[in-house]
Amino acid sequence: xxxxxxxxxxxxxxxxxxxxxxxxxxxxxxxxxxxxxxxxxxxxxxxxxxxxxxxxxxxxxxxxxxxxxxxxxxxxxxxxxxxxxxxxxxxxxxxxxxxxxxxxxxxxxxxxxxxxxxxxxxxxxxxxxxxxxxxxxxxxxxxxxxxxxxxxxxxxxxxxxxxxxxxxxxxxxxxxxxxxxxxxxxxxxxxxxxxx
Length: 196
Ligand SMILES: Cc1cc2nc3c(=O)[nH]c(=O)nc-3n(C[C@H](O)[C@H](O)[C@H](O)COP(=O)(O)O)c2cc1C
Prior knowledge:
Keywords: Flavoprotein, FMN, NAD, NADP, Oxidoreductase. Its cofactor is FMN. It is globular, with a radius of gyration of 16 Å. The chain is an alpha/beta fold. It has a single domain, classed as Rossmann fold. It has 6 helices and 8 strands. Strands 1, 2, 3, 6, 7 and 8 form a 6-stranded parallel β-sheet that branches. The structure holds flavin mononucleotide (FMN).
């Protein structure tokens, strides 16, 4: 009985990083979130979904409702997820182009983002990527995503002491605690949306 309850309430989170670089801080936030969830957040399973294979959006690539293989695979990952964790770097005060590209592909009919819970984390300059987060929230209105409101997670990656090592791994314990709070809020929102 207990096992089946646990199985039913397990949530699957698709985690996407808008930065494609190897030592990305934003990607590092996702790695850290995966470690935290495995160690301390029962019922949350996070899978990193790589957006680098996606072609640039071009609706000429759609054929009778089908998409290029990389796009089909990405859309399937989103469809199967209960909720989304976005790591959203701020590029010129907005959403990074690779992330917007991925969002747009998965928004093509049928929009596979619809009705999913979501959370955003970011690492960047002065505002820690905050401006990209607010643009992403606006985009989420049309996608029917349901973002947690709080806690917000912005991390200034360049202010000493160092928050990441040279491989982009999060090394700041305070930030890890805040990241855990985001995961708990995402779990709670996801389960609330799924309640019949
Ligand atoms: C094209 C570009 C534009 C950027 N614009 C901003 C910006 O508007 N605000 C900001 O805080 N950082 C900006 N940055 C710096 C990024 O925050 C920084 O490179 C960060 O490390 C990117 O995330 P990543 O480590 O996950 O790749 C920009 C970086 C690039 C490459």
